[in-house]
Design brief:
Layout lengths: L1 H12 L1 H39 L3 E4 L34 H9 L4 E15 L2 E10 L1 H7 L6 E4 L3 H4 L3 E5 H7 L6 E6 L4 E10 L4 H6 E5 H7 L8 E6 L5 H12 L3 E3 H4 L1 H39 L1 H9 L4 H36 L1 E2 L8 E2 L6 H27 L3 H8 L1
Parallel strand pairs: 3-8, 5-7
Antiparallel strand pairs: 1-9, 1-10, 2-3, 2-6, 2-9, 4-7, 5-8, 6-7, 11-12
Length: 411
Amino acid sequence: MLLLRIASTHIRNRLRQTIVSTLGVALGVGFSVAMASLMEGSQRDFTATLIDAIPHVEILDEQRAPAEQPASAVYDAVTYHGLRPKEDLRGIRNPTEALASLRDWVNGSMAQRLSGQAVLRYAGQDIGMTLVGVEPKRELTVSMIGEDMRQGSFEDLDTTSNGLVIGDKAADRLGADLGDTVTLTSANGVAKRFKIVGLFHSGITTSDEGLAYAPLKAVQILLEKPDVINSIAIHLNSIAEANAVAARAERQLGYKAVSWEEANEGLMEAFFVRNVIMYTVVGAILVVAGFGIFNIVSTIVHEKARDIAILKSLGFPEVDIQQIFVLEGLVIGILGALAGSALGFGLSSYLASVKFEFTQDVEMTHLPIYFSALHYIIACLLALFSSGIAGYIPARKAARLNPVDIIRGAT
């Protein structure tokens, strides 16, 4: 307590410089907390939007490794020439059996799909579309398409055998509207007439212009793939199980199963790199604040040289002298960390209240701020670390001063 009282006296004697150094630490901690809250909030918001928009696990009609050529079992050949592969209709066969086997252990919702390319024609205009055949009620449990509907209802596909739901931008390009009848032509030349029963707007141009939904049976007829699907979408109750579910489903069915993490591996790596950059910048800000503490403690050491000599002559060991000046740096750091935490909370709260409106289709939105005690703990620990280092360097110099030389120089 005696050492702390001496350190406090030194700090109070240079109150103006102490306030400036404390403000430097407070600003560093405050802006670091606000930036971390904004960065992690935006990451969590984007990830949540991504997870809601795509299946947690998707089983595709593909093999993870190419099938081995039958000749490889007999001949040690390096390459093959003149092979004529057997024509095989791609798709997941026996989808009813596959879905039944998954329902026994998958904790979530599932929906089967059949996707293919088709040309949408209306009033003499053509648009290439990705046509997705779905079971409407099941599809609504694995995707957010129901929330993106602007006109009509996605469930109307259940009551209209040749119903069609397309993006509003595709409808604008064609000049079509709800209730109009359009023609879809598959790559095999099969044409079928559909009635538009709904328009959606997802905010993604490629989807709003080039994606269409229709009843599964109608799409199977159009693409000439009866009783065949090419993907199973799974929405899990716990996204943490995505990788395990994908691995087990792939072993069980033999088809490639992709979790949302594997499908967005590059994005997850980009988030990791961004977090490294964020905490590096936070550390740099607090190191700069530490220079202010280093400056004030060094000045105190220079001004209090005679006091140091007196303390040493009274029997204070070098360790105590060193602790006095380290405590001075830590006191400034603690005061700055507390003030900075309050500032960071205030900045984060203000940013969370700021409203933005981008287009008429997007409602008023706020900045995605994520409040976490971890941000405050990390910022405060970094502040105390830089404060301790800033106080330790001049403290070592103070502890090594020779009291005889100081008093002789003073006289």
